[in-house]
Amino acid sequence: MADNEMVNEIRGKVAIVTGAASGIGRGIAELFVERGAKVIAVDKNDAVYGMASDNLVPLTADVTDDGSAEQAVTTALDRFGTLDILVNNAGYINYRNVVDTTREEWEKVMAINATGYFLFSREAAKAMIPNGKGAIVNIASYASFFAFPGIAPYAASKGAVAQLTRALALEVAPHGIRVNAVGSGDVVTNLLDTFRDDGREFLTEHGKSAPIGRSAEPREIAEAVAFLASDRASFVIGSIFMVDGGFSVQIA
After folding, report:
1. What is the pTM of this model?
2. Catalytically annotated residues
């Protein structure tokens, strides 16, 4: 494949990206548009409207609400006529030991990180099955497999993402739809800002413990997502593609 074909790997595709107003989601949405895709950018934050362009339609929605996934899929079909790609990215984390975590906090993490992925995957698959093709890419984590104190709800939710990826991949592969996930490591985003003022600095510092010696930028995760969403990954099904700087292969 020529270099220009690789750059244009998703040109003409129509994608939904959740959690698109900042961080990894914004990096994915912007990269997709740069490479010729059309994007429905979903986020509960009104800042998503600042991303609007001819090829990007912003949509404010909470991924946990009934009807949000249906609205996103309908928007894609109404504006661009089809749906080729779904990227489940919206995420939330809290840092508390289990004994200090309320049921409400547990359910919030699970609702955003697991139930939201399920709802959007279900509706996207319904739209893709008649076309006999499509790609769903979930943002998982090294926490899908490993953990450290204080992240039990997040680790549980990301474990659920890994298993949803595998099980759904088996269901929809006969319909020409591929489901995979990116096992992200530390990425410099605003993910931790809900409970600490130095979230980006913390993520930058924590990433130094990975073999690569640093955290990622959102664009680096977006590159992996673009590959998994493209026909270049035509034989990749049910994979958790680790993009974590080697975090998951080291012995601490």
Report:
1. 0.92
2. 154
